[in-house]
Amino acid sequence: MSYRNKTYVAFDGDNDMKYYRLMTAWKEHDNIDFNFFNAHDLNSARDTSTEESIKSQLRIRMDNSKQMLLLVGDSTKYLRKFLPWEIELARKKDIPIIIVNLNNKKDYDDDLCPSAIKDWIYTVSIPFKMKAIQYALDEFPDDYYKSKNISNFKDHRFRYKDSVYEKLGI
Question: Which site among 12, 17, 31, 132 is 20 to 30 Å from 78 CA-CA?
């Protein structure tokens, strides 16, 4: 297996691109303490490519990823082509998924999450706040693997305690 250090970001490219771009802008800004190794930097899947070509490029990104950020917006649950496939691929590769609610909800949002993630056993849900995202990127993968070894993931949808958000100033 290749060395995994990237963050795979899955989202509705038609409606939620601005949130992805905002995250990359935070990363590039010298005076903002936000960083992640973006798997999307590995290659570019073009809309004009065939479905299999796009999936091949996405698979390469996922092969190099240690975690997935799933940006969940108003229309995410309606996506049927690539997003369910990406979630299933993360499941097969045992990649932790951080659900980022674009409505800033701190808990799992059953009304907006896609059906492909509903039966995923262990995730964390956070609001789309820079400090919350950075905290989850830094902390959740280790928590995921530790909890996996202890509890075998019995219906565990995780959320951070309010004290974590208070500490982060959110």
Answer: 132
User: In which region does residue 37 sit, left (phi positive, over 0), alpha (psi from -120 to 50) or beta (all else)?
Assistant: beta
Quick one: pLDDT at residue 150?
A: 56
| Cα Dmax for the chain | 47
Quote the CA–CA distance of 12 and 114 in Å, as a whole number.
Answer: 11
Instruction: Decide if 67 contacts 35 (C-beta within 8 A).
Output: no
Written as six digits, the tokens of 11 are 């989202």
* HSE of 65, CA atoms in CB hemisphere, 13 A: 32
**DSSP label of 77:** G
What is the CATH number assigned to the segment(s) 6-168?
3.40.50.11200
Give the list of residues 6+ apart from residue 158 with CB closer than 8 angstroms, or none.
Answer: 122, 123, 124, 125, 140, 143
**What is the per-residue pLDDT across 134-155, written as a single tens digit (0 to 9) for each?**
999 999 988 888 876 655 555 5
pTM score, whole prediction: 0.86
Q: Are 124 and 158 in contact (CB under 8 A)?
A: yes
First-to-last alpha carbon distance for the chain, in angstroms, is 38
